[in-house]
Structures are given as C-alpha cells and as structure tokens.
C-alpha cells in the first residue's frame, strides 16, 4: 500500500503537541530538529516538517495526504480540504481589539477605520458579512504594536490568554473565529484504510486524554450508592478485598466531572481513591 505523508509544523506552537500526538498513536520516528522529513518505522507513514502556512496547500495539492494545522490557517488560505478530526490543542481565538482609551465600542464603529492584521482574508469576510467598510492593513507580524505606532485604529489578531494584548495597552472587543489544531486530509481520500486506521488511533488517544482510571475501596454495604455515581465505559469492575465486607471498584470517568464526582464518592463512603492517567481507549 502507498506510504502516507502527513505534514506537521516544523517549529512553533503546534510542533510539540503534534509530535506527541503521533508518538502516542504508537508511531516510532526520529524527530531531529534539522530534518524536514522523517520516516515512521512501524507504519507506512512519512512525516513532513513544514511552516504551518504551507500545510493546507500541500494537503489540497496532494503533496501530503494529511496535515495538522490550526483552523485559522485553513480559513485564511481558503483551501478545499476535508476536516477529519479536531485535536484539542492549539486553541486560540481571532479577535478584534483596540487601545484601552479608544472610542471604538462595537464593530459598527470600525467603519472608515484602519485595522492591522495578518489575517486579511478572514477579516474581509467578517467585515463584508457585517457591511462594514474598513481599511485592512496586512502586516506579517507584531500586529499588536501597530495602534501604538499610529499605523491602525484597531487590530485583528490571534489571542489565547490575552496577555500580549494587555501588555500592549489593548482590549479585545469582538470574537470573530475560534480555532484549534485539526487533522485535515485531501478531498476524496477519506476511505483510504491507512487514513481510517490513523484517525482511529488518534481518537483513542484523545478519548483517553479526556478520562481517568479510578480505583477506590468501599464497604460492600455502600457499593450500590457508589456504583450509581459511576458512569463507566460499561459498568465498574468490583473486586473483593482480603478484608471481609470490603471491595475495590475500578472505573473510568471523564476528567471534566472529576472533582465533583470525587467529593460525591467520598461522601458515599469511598476511601483510598487512586486516580490514574489512561494511555488509550479502544472502543
Ligand atoms: P510557522 O513558522 O510555522 O509559520 P507561525 O509563527 O505562523 O509558525 P505559531 O505562532 O507557531 O505560528 O502558531 C501556530 C498556530 O498555533 C497558530 O496558527 C494558531 O493556530 C495556534 N495558536 C494557539 N495559540 C496561539 C497564540 N497565542 N498565538 C499564535 N498562535 C496560536
Ligand atoms: Mg505561520
């Protein structure tokens, strides 16, 4: 079968997490900082390390079969690729922001104003949709300093924590697009068995990340109450302890209701609660 190629970011915010995800999928490869291509030894896959801006087009044009890239970059490059899987990292939002003392209060106040951005395509679409006529000034980096230099009245840029905006005296006033890293594929290749296999591996890693393996001890008389609190993958495993009248309960619970569940379990009589990370969940 033809070897697949996946394009990931060479260096930058998505590189480490992309490499980690592929490694967690059981793929073995060398990750030299200097190499542009790496061959996976235990799966027919080659990894191309690229600038993130180039990834959507490489996938669209079939130079790579798959890619990992931010949704923001896909929208900006306007390529025709298929979205295969959201990956849960690289989360950020494209926002409009102005200086703290600006009289621009809402998006309509942007009429006739200059907006600096590295995302002119996404911004233009947003302004057109809202019937706003503004002057888009495309710059490739350090967008946040442009209002202070008098180059623009507002900026349109990526925000994750908001720290960069704050330290430049800016405040966000409208969210335009939220983004995270996604796995993209070339249109029409979705039924390739190797791609399906890889997506399944990725999904099992993502599922595992969202859940924890929990083991707890309880008196048998409290078991019913405790089991009701535990929505496991199927149902919890209950094992007798050496001490008469006691059991150990093993289960898997979603990380998001973890703390709430732990305190409810404790008040239902659970003791010695051990929480462990899970590597993979294969359904
Ligand atoms: P490259 O050299 O590959 O072109 P880059 O400088 O364009 O890299 P990075 O800054 O490494 O890009 O960001 C890569 C992606 O990470 C962004 O396109 C976006 O999807 C995501 N991201 C998450 N948080 C942030 C943030 N605070 N600032 C910028 N990008 C972020
Ligand atoms: Mg880039």
From TrEMBL:
Gene3D superfamilies: 3.30.70.120, Periplasmic binding protein-like II. Its cofactor is Mg(2+). Residues 208-280 form the Histidine biosynthesis HisG C-terminal domain. It catalyses: 1-(5-phospho-beta-D-ribosyl)-ATP + diphosphate = 5-phospho-alpha-D-ribose 1-diphosphate + ATP. It is an enzyme of class 2 (transferase). GO terms for molecular function: ATP binding; ATP phosphoribosyltransferase activity; magnesium ion binding. Catalyzes the condensation of ATP and 5-phosphoribose 1-diphosphate to form N'-(5'-phosphoribosyl)-ATP (PR-ATP). Has a crucial role in the pathway because the rate of histidine biosynthesis seems to be controlled primarily by regulation of HisG enzymatic activity. This is ATP phosphoribosyltransferase. It comes from Daejeonella lutea.
